[in-house]
Design a protein that fits this description.
Length: about 375
């Protein structure tokens, strides 16, 4: 039973919102004349002071404000990537399956509530602003259940069938509480729903959207996160990816980089000379790496070498004759850190404190206003 629970925890724990669809959403923000992407219009981006960042505050709101009138119950259409079918779901019920899949149920209730609001915000954004090509991919639906593209999801029935009803029942009740106690609440920036992306763990701080996807989003900037001080308690906080010189070269050449042929003169040099310079960005993650005289972004190296994040070091180990990536954290690093949120909750912060910390300058508003 212990092995089963551990495997299940790992399965849920490291599910991260997919990079691919977010890149498409954010890249569309700068598409000239795209008036449908209202949330990105007319932003004035200011530099974030990483060292002296302070969370914003927000007035307490009456919970009744967020409960939609009966004629404004919100439904979301979901494309099931497994069955190839589209269904219509009550948004609040659908969110239970999303939150259960996206964050460990063992996390603090305030962290789960923050996750529920972030997930609801992302869903609402997708419902309102999904581009035509994304909807076509979803067969007309607002969202899909493939975590590589949108959000992971499992129904209560499927979870019970997979893990057993006795085990799932108390966990699902906890998730229902997190969703229920945040009913109708979403994150907004300048009165528009926010793209509330999140990731598993940050390290010392989160990443900015500009460094990952190339677009500056005022509420998705780098802020400190506290995982570094608790790294001994977080499984796989630091990981290693090792490659022999031949494998390292093969990954580069197989990904179509010109000039990296097997007979390239650059590769004829000693392997310890292949990597010459690593540059960090404003968030202290890898910006670019010079390999054999060519520059590669940290984002691209993360992709082709299957690294858990762009917070890494790269060295050649002369003893083992391997290239070693030492990687901190997990995920693209933008938005809310799930582990950071849990640490804040353990420290007595509530879900609004958490959301206002990780999403800069936002407010919490009723979702039904937009329908």
């Amino acid at each position: 039973m212990f092995v089963f629970l551990l495997a299940f925890a790992v399965f849920v724990m490291f599910t991260v919102i997919a990079d691919g669809d977010i890149e498409e959403i954010l890249s569309s923000a700068t598409d000239g004349g795209n008036e449908s992407v209202k949330v990105f219009k007319n932003y004035i981006v200011t530099e974030n002071d990483f060292q002296n960042y302070e969370p914003e505050t927000i007035a307490t709101v009456e919970k009744s404000e967020f409960i939609a009138p009966e004629n404004k119950q919100i439904f979301i259409s979901v494309f099931d990537a497994v069955t190839d079918e589209v269904s219509t779901e009550d948004l609040e019920e659908y969110l239970c399956g999303v939150v259960f899949s996206e964050m460990p149920s063992s996390f603090e209730i305030e962290a789960l509530k923050a996750q529920a609001v972030a997930a609801r915000s992302f869903c609402v954004y997708k419902m309102l602003y999904s581009a035509a090509e994304i909807r076509k991919f979803h067969k007309g639906a607002d969202i899909c259940n493939d975590y590589k593209h949108c959000k992971d999801y499992i129904s209560f029935e499927a979870a019970c069938e997979k893990y057993g009803r006795d085990y799932i029942n108390p966990l699902w009740e906890k998730i229902k509480r997190a969703v229920g106690e945040t009913t109708g609440e979403i994150i907004a920036y300048e009165s528009e729903p926010a793209v509330a992306v999140f990731h598993a763990m940050s390290g010392k701080g989160t990443e900015s959207a500009a460094n990952v996807w190339g677009n500056s989003i005022p509420y998705l900037i780098s802020v400190p996160s506290d995982e570094e001080n608790y790294k001994s308690e977080i499984k796989n906080y630091i990981t290693e990816n090792r490659f022999t010189a031949d494998d390292f070269k093969s990954v580069l050449t197989s990904n179509g980089f010109s000039g990296f042929s097997v007979d390239s003169a650059e590769f004829s040099k000693s392997p310890q000379l292949w990597v010459s310079k690593v540059r960090l960005n404003s968030s202290n993650r890898v910006d670019t790496v010079d390999i054999c005289g060519k520059s590669f972004t940290g984002v691209k190296l993360r992709e082709i070498f299957s690294l858990r994040s762009t917070d890494f070091t790269l060295e050649y180990d002369g003893k083992s004759k391997e290239f070693v990536f030492t990687v901190t954290g997990y995920g693209h690093g933008v938005g809310m850190s799930q582990y950071g949120a849990n640490l804040m909750a353990k420290d007595g912060k509530n879900y609004i404190d958490i959301l206002l910390w990780y999403y800069t300058g936002v407010e919490i508003v009723p979702a039904y206003r937009f329908f």
